[in-house]
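Notes on consecutive records. When two proteins share a document, each keeps its own sequence and its own C-alpha coordinate line. Never mix them. Below: protein one.
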Amino acid sequence: MPHELTQPPYFVSDDAGLVDFDVVHGFLTTCYWSPGIPRQLVERAARHSMCFGVYKGSPDGERAQVGFARVVSDRATFAYLADVFVLDEHRVRGLSKLLMRAILSHPELQGLRRWMLMTRDAHGLYTQFGFNSMPDPTRAMERTIANAYLKKG
Protein backbone atom coordinates (compact mmCIF):
# COMPACT_ATOMS: atom_id res chain seq x y z
CA MET A 1 0.00 0.00 0.00
CA PRO A 2 1.48 3.39 -0.95
CA HIS A 3 2.66 5.81 1.70
CA GLU A 4 0.83 9.09 1.03
CA LEU A 5 0.33 12.50 2.61
CA THR A 6 -2.23 14.99 1.35
CA GLN A 7 -2.65 18.73 1.30
CA PRO A 8 -5.56 19.25 -1.12
CA PRO A 9 -5.38 19.66 -4.03
CA TYR A 10 -1.87 18.16 -3.69
CA PHE A 11 -0.56 14.85 -2.44
CA VAL A 12 2.78 13.06 -2.02
CA SER A 13 3.09 9.37 -2.81
CA ASP A 14 5.87 6.79 -2.82
CA ASP A 15 4.09 4.86 -5.60
CA ALA A 16 6.84 4.61 -8.25
CA GLY A 17 4.21 3.80 -10.86
CA LEU A 18 2.89 7.35 -10.66
CA VAL A 19 6.21 9.05 -11.52
CA ASP A 20 6.11 11.09 -14.75
CA PHE A 21 9.66 10.84 -16.04
CA ASP A 22 9.03 13.53 -18.65
CA VAL A 23 8.58 16.00 -15.76
CA VAL A 24 11.38 14.61 -13.60
CA HIS A 25 13.93 14.42 -16.41
CA GLY A 26 12.80 17.78 -17.77
CA PHE A 27 13.62 19.42 -14.45
CA LEU A 28 16.79 17.51 -13.59
CA THR A 29 18.43 18.08 -16.97
CA THR A 30 18.40 21.84 -16.37
CA CYS A 31 19.12 22.15 -12.64
CA TYR A 32 22.52 22.97 -11.17
CA TRP A 33 23.31 19.51 -9.82
CA SER A 34 22.65 17.40 -12.93
CA PRO A 35 22.81 19.51 -16.12
CA GLY A 36 22.34 17.38 -19.21
CA ILE A 37 21.65 14.13 -17.35
CA PRO A 38 20.40 11.51 -19.80
CA ARG A 39 16.86 10.24 -19.25
CA GLN A 40 18.01 6.61 -18.96
CA LEU A 41 20.20 7.56 -15.98
CA VAL A 42 17.29 9.36 -14.31
CA GLU A 43 15.13 6.26 -14.73
CA ARG A 44 17.90 3.91 -13.56
CA ALA A 45 18.55 6.02 -10.47
CA ALA A 46 14.81 5.98 -9.71
CA ARG A 47 14.61 2.18 -10.09
CA HIS A 48 17.26 1.81 -7.41
CA SER A 49 15.82 4.41 -5.03
CA MET A 50 12.68 5.09 -3.05
CA CYS A 51 10.84 7.72 -5.09
CA PHE A 52 8.44 10.32 -3.75
CA GLY A 53 6.31 12.30 -6.16
CA VAL A 54 4.36 15.47 -5.46
CA TYR A 55 1.17 15.64 -7.52
CA LYS A 56 -1.71 18.00 -8.08
CA GLY A 57 -4.93 16.08 -8.37
CA SER A 58 -6.08 12.72 -7.09
CA PRO A 59 -4.14 9.50 -6.39
CA ASP A 60 -6.80 7.49 -8.22
CA GLY A 61 -7.84 10.11 -10.79
CA GLU A 62 -6.30 12.79 -12.92
CA ARG A 63 -3.06 14.21 -11.61
CA ALA A 64 0.00 16.16 -12.71
CA GLN A 65 3.47 15.75 -11.24
CA VAL A 66 4.76 18.98 -9.68
CA GLY A 67 7.65 17.74 -7.52
CA PHE A 68 9.93 14.83 -6.77
CA ALA A 69 12.59 13.45 -4.45
CA ARG A 70 14.37 10.15 -4.11
CA VAL A 71 16.03 8.42 -1.20
CA VAL A 72 18.96 6.04 -1.59
CA SER A 73 19.00 3.84 1.50
CA ASP A 74 19.75 0.47 3.01
CA ARG A 75 16.51 1.07 4.99
CA ALA A 76 18.30 0.10 8.19
CA THR A 77 21.08 2.57 9.04
CA PHE A 78 21.62 5.20 6.31
CA ALA A 79 19.77 7.34 3.77
CA TYR A 80 20.84 9.88 1.18
CA LEU A 81 18.23 12.40 0.02
CA ALA A 82 18.60 13.43 -3.63
CA ASP A 83 16.97 15.19 -6.57
CA VAL A 84 14.51 17.17 -4.45
CA PHE A 85 12.42 19.73 -6.34
CA VAL A 86 9.05 21.43 -6.66
CA LEU A 87 8.30 23.09 -9.99
CA ASP A 88 8.49 26.90 -9.86
CA GLU A 89 4.79 27.47 -10.51
CA HIS A 90 3.84 25.32 -7.48
CA ARG A 91 6.30 26.78 -4.95
CA VAL A 92 5.38 28.84 -1.88
CA ARG A 93 2.52 26.46 -1.05
CA GLY A 94 4.30 24.37 1.58
CA LEU A 95 4.84 21.48 -0.83
CA SER A 96 8.53 21.03 -0.06
CA LYS A 97 7.60 20.70 3.61
CA LEU A 98 4.83 18.23 2.76
CA LEU A 99 7.36 16.25 0.72
CA MET A 100 9.87 16.22 3.58
CA ARG A 101 7.19 15.11 6.07
CA ALA A 102 6.21 12.26 3.74
CA ILE A 103 9.81 11.13 3.36
CA LEU A 104 10.75 11.35 7.02
CA SER A 105 7.55 9.60 8.16
CA HIS A 106 7.91 6.68 5.74
CA PRO A 107 7.70 3.42 7.72
CA GLU A 108 10.80 1.93 6.03
CA LEU A 109 12.94 4.95 6.89
CA GLN A 110 12.46 4.99 10.65
CA GLY A 111 15.33 4.57 13.12
CA LEU A 112 18.10 5.35 10.65
CA ARG A 113 21.39 6.41 12.23
CA ARG A 114 22.36 8.91 9.53
CA TRP A 115 20.71 10.95 6.79
CA MET A 116 22.76 12.97 4.30
CA LEU A 117 22.07 15.39 1.49
CA MET A 118 23.81 18.02 -0.57
CA THR A 119 22.34 21.46 -1.26
CA ARG A 120 23.56 24.79 -2.51
CA ASP A 121 20.53 26.89 -1.60
CA ALA A 122 17.92 25.10 0.52
CA HIS A 123 19.54 25.01 3.96
CA GLY A 124 16.55 26.84 5.47
CA LEU A 125 14.17 24.04 4.45
CA TYR A 126 16.32 21.17 5.63
CA THR A 127 17.25 22.65 9.02
CA GLN A 128 13.51 22.69 9.83
CA PHE A 129 13.67 18.90 9.60
CA GLY A 130 16.76 18.36 11.74
CA PHE A 131 19.49 18.50 9.10
CA ASN A 132 22.62 20.44 10.08
CA SER A 133 25.97 21.29 8.56
CA MET A 134 28.58 18.68 9.35
CA PRO A 135 30.31 19.56 12.63
CA ASP A 136 33.57 18.12 11.31
CA PRO A 137 33.57 18.30 7.51
CA THR A 138 37.08 16.86 7.44
CA ARG A 139 35.50 13.45 8.14
CA ALA A 140 33.52 13.52 4.90
CA MET A 141 35.05 12.78 1.52
CA GLU A 142 33.69 12.75 -1.98
CA ARG A 143 34.68 11.72 -5.46
CA THR A 144 33.04 13.70 -8.24
CA ILE A 145 33.28 14.05 -11.99
CA ALA A 146 32.58 17.65 -12.97
CA ASN A 147 30.00 18.05 -15.74
CA ALA A 148 29.72 14.26 -16.05
CA TYR A 149 26.52 14.40 -18.10
CA LEU A 150 27.78 17.06 -20.51
CA LYS A 151 30.87 15.15 -21.68
CA LYS A 152 30.81 13.64 -25.14
CA GLY A 153 32.14 10.22 -26.05
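Protein two starts on the next line and is unrelated to protein one.
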Amino acid sequence: MSNYSIKDLERYSGIKAHTLRMWEQRYHLLSPHRTETNIRTYSNADLRHILNVSFLNNQGIKISHIAKLSAKEIHTRVLGIAESSIVPSIQIDSLVAAMIAYDEESFEKTVELCCKKIGFDKTMTDVIYPFLQKLGVMWHAGMATPGQEHFVINLIRQKIIVAINNHPNVTDKSTKKFLLYLPENEYHEVALLYYNYFLRNHGFRTTYLGQSVPYEDLIKAYSQIKPDYLLAIITCPKEELNTQEHLQRLSKDFSKSKIFLSGYEQSFSQLHIPSNIFLFKNPANLSSLLKKI
Protein backbone atom coordinates (compact mmCIF):
# COMPACT_ATOMS: atom_id res chain seq x y z
CA MET A 1 0.00 0.00 0.00
CA SER A 2 1.18 3.54 -0.74
CA ASN A 3 -2.08 5.33 0.07
CA TYR A 4 -3.74 4.99 3.45
CA SER A 5 -6.96 6.31 4.88
CA ILE A 6 -7.08 7.91 8.29
CA LYS A 7 -8.73 4.70 9.54
CA ASP A 8 -5.68 2.76 8.33
CA LEU A 9 -3.45 5.08 10.34
CA GLU A 10 -5.69 4.57 13.36
CA ARG A 11 -5.42 0.76 13.10
CA TYR A 12 -1.65 0.77 12.67
CA SER A 13 -0.78 3.41 15.27
CA GLY A 14 -3.51 2.85 17.85
CA ILE A 15 -4.30 6.59 17.78
CA LYS A 16 -7.97 7.42 17.28
CA ALA A 17 -8.88 9.05 13.97
CA HIS A 18 -10.34 12.13 15.66
CA THR A 19 -7.08 12.57 17.61
CA LEU A 20 -5.07 12.30 14.40
CA ARG A 21 -7.26 14.97 12.79
CA MET A 22 -6.79 17.23 15.82
CA TRP A 23 -3.00 16.74 15.75
CA GLU A 24 -3.01 17.41 12.03
CA GLN A 25 -4.90 20.67 12.44
CA ARG A 26 -3.19 21.88 15.62
CA TYR A 27 0.39 20.69 15.12
CA HIS A 28 0.59 20.02 11.36
CA LEU A 29 2.04 16.58 12.07
CA LEU A 30 0.67 15.20 8.80
CA SER A 31 0.21 16.60 5.32
CA PRO A 32 -2.36 14.38 3.63
CA HIS A 33 -3.17 14.41 -0.03
CA ARG A 34 -6.82 15.11 -0.74
CA THR A 35 -8.81 13.45 -3.49
CA GLU A 36 -11.18 15.30 -5.76
CA THR A 37 -13.93 14.46 -3.27
CA ASN A 38 -11.82 15.94 -0.43
CA ILE A 39 -11.00 12.60 1.20
CA ARG A 40 -7.67 12.47 3.05
CA THR A 41 -5.08 9.91 1.88
CA TYR A 42 -1.71 9.33 3.48
CA SER A 43 1.62 8.08 2.15
CA ASN A 44 4.11 5.52 3.49
CA ALA A 45 6.14 8.44 4.83
CA ASP A 46 3.08 9.73 6.71
CA LEU A 47 2.48 6.30 8.20
CA ARG A 48 6.09 5.88 9.32
CA HIS A 49 6.04 9.37 10.81
CA ILE A 50 2.86 8.84 12.82
CA LEU A 51 4.17 5.49 14.08
CA ASN A 52 7.26 7.30 15.37
CA VAL A 53 5.10 10.01 16.92
CA SER A 54 2.91 7.37 18.58
CA PHE A 55 6.01 5.59 19.86
CA LEU A 56 7.39 8.73 21.54
CA ASN A 57 4.00 9.67 22.91
CA ASN A 58 3.66 6.20 24.46
CA GLN A 59 7.04 6.76 26.13
CA GLY A 60 5.51 9.70 28.02
CA ILE A 61 6.66 12.56 25.78
CA LYS A 62 3.93 15.17 25.35
CA ILE A 63 2.58 15.69 21.85
CA SER A 64 3.18 19.45 22.16
CA HIS A 65 6.89 18.73 22.59
CA ILE A 66 7.01 16.11 19.81
CA ALA A 67 5.36 18.56 17.42
CA LYS A 68 8.30 20.95 17.79
CA LEU A 69 10.73 18.32 16.47
CA SER A 70 11.50 17.69 12.82
CA ALA A 71 10.76 14.30 11.29
CA LYS A 72 14.49 13.52 11.37
CA GLU A 73 14.76 14.49 15.04
CA ILE A 74 11.73 12.34 15.89
CA HIS A 75 13.25 9.36 14.07
CA THR A 76 16.56 9.88 15.89
CA ARG A 77 14.78 9.99 19.25
CA VAL A 78 12.96 6.75 18.45
CA LEU A 79 16.20 5.00 17.49
CA GLY A 80 17.88 6.27 20.64
CA ILE A 81 15.17 4.89 22.91
CA ALA A 82 14.94 1.59 21.00
CA GLU A 83 18.70 1.06 21.23
CA SER A 84 19.07 2.02 24.89
CA SER A 85 17.23 -0.98 26.31
CA ILE A 86 15.30 -4.06 25.23
CA VAL A 87 11.64 -3.54 25.99
CA PRO A 88 9.77 -6.07 23.83
CA SER A 89 6.86 -3.76 23.04
CA ILE A 90 9.31 -1.15 21.73
CA GLN A 91 11.18 -3.59 19.52
CA ILE A 92 7.94 -5.17 18.25
CA ASP A 93 6.68 -1.75 17.19
CA SER A 94 10.03 -1.13 15.48
CA LEU A 95 9.64 -4.37 13.53
CA VAL A 96 6.10 -3.45 12.52
CA ALA A 97 7.28 -0.05 11.27
CA ALA A 98 10.14 -1.68 9.33
CA MET A 99 7.74 -4.19 7.80
CA ILE A 100 5.33 -1.51 6.63
CA ALA A 101 8.17 0.46 5.05
CA TYR A 102 9.93 -2.61 3.58
CA ASP A 103 12.97 -1.36 5.49
CA GLU A 104 15.32 -4.35 5.63
CA GLU A 105 18.13 -2.38 7.27
CA SER A 106 15.93 -1.25 10.18
CA PHE A 107 14.44 -4.72 10.59
CA GLU A 108 17.87 -6.38 10.66
CA LYS A 109 19.26 -3.72 12.99
CA THR A 110 16.44 -4.25 15.51
CA VAL A 111 16.84 -8.04 15.48
CA GLU A 112 20.63 -7.84 15.74
CA LEU A 113 20.39 -5.41 18.65
CA CYS A 114 18.04 -7.77 20.49
CA CYS A 115 20.28 -10.79 19.82
CA LYS A 116 23.31 -8.87 21.09
CA LYS A 117 21.62 -7.73 24.30
CA ILE A 118 19.39 -10.66 25.27
CA GLY A 119 20.53 -13.54 23.02
CA PHE A 120 18.86 -15.35 20.15
CA ASP A 121 16.54 -17.48 22.30
CA LYS A 122 14.99 -14.58 24.21
CA THR A 123 14.87 -12.50 21.02
CA MET A 124 12.75 -15.23 19.47
CA THR A 125 10.48 -15.84 22.48
CA ASP A 126 10.12 -12.24 23.71
CA VAL A 127 10.24 -10.26 20.47
CA ILE A 128 9.97 -12.27 17.24
CA TYR A 129 7.25 -14.69 18.34
CA PRO A 130 4.98 -11.92 19.74
CA PHE A 131 5.69 -9.96 16.55
CA LEU A 132 4.51 -12.93 14.46
CA GLN A 133 1.38 -13.17 16.60
CA LYS A 134 0.73 -9.48 16.00
CA LEU A 135 1.37 -9.99 12.29
CA GLY A 136 -1.22 -12.78 12.31
CA VAL A 137 -3.79 -10.45 13.86
CA MET A 138 -2.91 -7.73 11.34
CA TRP A 139 -3.24 -10.22 8.49
CA HIS A 140 -6.70 -11.37 9.55
CA ALA A 141 -7.75 -7.73 10.01
CA GLY A 142 -6.51 -6.79 6.54
CA MET A 143 -3.81 -4.52 8.00
CA ALA A 144 -0.83 -6.30 6.40
CA THR A 145 -0.33 -7.05 2.72
CA PRO A 146 1.01 -10.35 1.34
CA GLY A 147 4.14 -8.49 0.22
CA GLN A 148 4.82 -7.12 3.69
CA GLU A 149 4.25 -10.53 5.26
CA HIS A 150 6.58 -12.32 2.80
CA PHE A 151 9.22 -9.62 3.26
CA VAL A 152 9.57 -10.08 7.03
CA ILE A 153 8.92 -13.83 7.07
CA ASN A 154 11.84 -14.44 4.71
CA LEU A 155 14.15 -12.32 6.87
CA ILE A 156 13.15 -14.22 10.01
CA ARG A 157 13.30 -17.55 8.20
CA GLN A 158 16.93 -16.97 7.21
CA LYS A 159 17.93 -16.33 10.82
CA ILE A 160 16.16 -19.43 12.14
CA ILE A 161 17.78 -21.66 9.51
CA VAL A 162 21.21 -20.39 10.55
CA ALA A 163 20.36 -21.14 14.20
CA ILE A 164 19.15 -24.67 13.29
CA ASN A 165 22.38 -25.34 11.39
CA ASN A 166 24.29 -24.34 14.52
CA HIS A 167 22.30 -26.93 16.54
CA PRO A 168 22.78 -30.29 14.80
CA ASN A 169 20.52 -33.17 15.77
CA VAL A 170 21.28 -35.14 18.91
CA THR A 171 23.07 -38.37 17.95
CA ASP A 172 21.96 -40.40 20.97
CA LYS A 173 19.30 -42.77 19.57
CA SER A 174 17.67 -43.10 22.99
CA THR A 175 16.72 -39.40 22.93
CA LYS A 176 13.01 -38.70 22.39
CA LYS A 177 12.15 -37.76 18.82
CA PHE A 178 9.71 -35.20 17.36
CA LEU A 179 8.24 -35.30 13.85
CA LEU A 180 7.34 -31.77 12.70
CA TYR A 181 5.09 -30.96 9.76
CA LEU A 182 2.43 -28.65 8.38
CA PRO A 183 -0.82 -30.19 7.12
CA GLU A 184 -1.59 -30.15 3.42
CA ASN A 185 -2.15 -26.62 2.02
CA GLU A 186 -0.47 -25.04 5.04
CA TYR A 187 2.48 -22.92 3.92
CA HIS A 188 3.19 -20.60 6.88
CA GLU A 189 6.41 -22.33 7.82
CA VAL A 190 8.36 -19.88 9.94
CA ALA A 191 6.79 -20.86 13.29
CA LEU A 192 7.35 -24.55 12.56
CA LEU A 193 10.98 -23.80 11.68
CA TYR A 194 11.39 -22.03 14.98
CA TYR A 195 9.95 -24.99 16.91
CA ASN A 196 12.44 -27.24 15.11
CA TYR A 197 15.22 -25.05 16.52
CA PHE A 198 13.47 -24.82 19.90
CA LEU A 199 13.17 -28.59 20.31
CA ARG A 200 16.76 -29.26 19.25
CA ASN A 201 17.89 -26.61 21.70
CA HIS A 202 15.94 -28.44 24.42
CA GLY A 203 17.72 -31.72 23.72
CA PHE A 204 15.19 -33.50 21.50
CA ARG A 205 15.87 -35.18 18.17
CA THR A 206 13.76 -33.80 15.33
CA THR A 207 12.69 -34.84 11.85
CA TYR A 208 11.38 -31.90 9.86
CA LEU A 209 8.95 -32.56 7.00
CA GLY A 210 8.08 -28.90 6.35
CA GLN A 211 5.05 -27.40 4.69
CA SER A 212 1.95 -28.90 3.02
CA VAL A 213 2.52 -32.56 3.83
CA PRO A 214 -0.21 -34.83 2.36
CA TYR A 215 -1.78 -36.95 5.08
CA GLU A 216 -0.89 -40.22 3.33
CA ASP A 217 2.78 -39.15 3.20
CA LEU A 218 2.65 -38.24 6.89
CA ILE A 219 1.46 -41.77 7.71
CA LYS A 220 4.27 -43.30 5.63
CA ALA A 221 6.91 -41.09 7.26
CA TYR A 222 5.52 -41.87 10.71
CA SER A 223 5.71 -45.62 10.14
CA GLN A 224 9.39 -45.36 9.20
CA ILE A 225 10.54 -42.73 11.70
CA LYS A 226 8.45 -43.97 14.65
CA PRO A 227 8.58 -40.64 16.54
CA ASP A 228 7.63 -40.27 20.17
CA TYR A 229 5.85 -36.99 19.45
CA LEU A 230 4.30 -35.10 16.55
CA LEU A 231 4.13 -31.32 16.29
CA ALA A 232 2.02 -29.44 13.76
CA ILE A 233 0.61 -25.96 13.27
CA ILE A 234 -2.78 -25.14 11.77
CA THR A 235 -2.44 -21.48 10.87
CA CYS A 236 -5.80 -20.73 9.29
CA PRO A 237 -9.18 -22.46 9.38
CA LYS A 238 -10.07 -23.96 6.00
CA GLU A 239 -13.44 -24.90 4.57
CA GLU A 240 -12.12 -28.25 3.38
CA LEU A 241 -10.71 -29.14 6.81
CA ASN A 242 -13.16 -30.29 9.46
CA THR A 243 -10.98 -29.59 12.48
CA GLN A 244 -12.84 -31.92 14.86
CA GLU A 245 -12.65 -34.84 12.41
CA HIS A 246 -9.00 -34.02 11.75
CA LEU A 247 -8.18 -34.18 15.47
CA GLN A 248 -9.96 -37.50 15.85
CA ARG A 249 -8.12 -38.91 12.84
CA LEU A 250 -4.75 -37.76 14.15
CA SER A 251 -5.48 -39.22 17.57
CA LYS A 252 -6.46 -42.59 16.11
CA ASP A 253 -3.77 -42.94 13.41
CA PHE A 254 -0.95 -41.83 15.71
CA SER A 255 -2.26 -43.29 18.95
CA LYS A 256 1.20 -44.39 20.11
CA SER A 257 2.50 -40.81 20.11
CA LYS A 258 1.67 -37.57 21.85
CA ILE A 259 0.59 -34.87 19.42
CA PHE A 260 1.28 -31.16 19.97
CA LEU A 261 -0.81 -28.70 17.98
CA SER A 262 -0.75 -24.93 17.74
CA GLY A 263 -2.11 -22.25 15.44
CA TYR A 264 -5.16 -20.09 15.02
CA GLU A 265 -6.95 -20.45 18.36
CA GLN A 266 -10.45 -20.20 16.91
CA SER A 267 -9.72 -23.40 14.95
CA PHE A 268 -9.75 -25.29 18.26
CA SER A 269 -12.37 -23.38 20.22
CA GLN A 270 -15.31 -25.42 21.50
CA LEU A 271 -13.84 -28.68 20.20
CA HIS A 272 -13.38 -31.99 21.98
CA ILE A 273 -9.62 -32.54 22.31
CA PRO A 274 -8.54 -36.22 22.36
CA SER A 275 -6.43 -37.29 25.32
CA ASN A 276 -3.18 -37.71 23.34
CA ILE A 277 -3.41 -34.25 21.74
CA PHE A 278 -2.00 -31.21 23.52
CA LEU A 279 -2.66 -27.63 22.43
CA PHE A 280 -0.07 -24.90 22.95
CA LYS A 281 -0.03 -21.17 22.21
CA ASN A 282 3.62 -20.18 22.31
CA PRO A 283 7.14 -21.42 23.15
CA ALA A 284 6.69 -20.86 26.89
CA ASN A 285 3.46 -22.86 26.83
CA LEU A 286 5.16 -25.69 24.91
CA SER A 287 8.09 -25.66 27.34
CA SER A 288 5.68 -26.14 30.26
CA LEU A 289 4.00 -29.07 28.51
CA LEU A 290 7.33 -30.74 27.74
CA LYS A 291 8.25 -30.66 31.43
CA LYS A 292 5.15 -32.71 32.21
CA ILE A 293 5.70 -35.52 29.69
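For the record: The chain has a mean pLDDT of 88.
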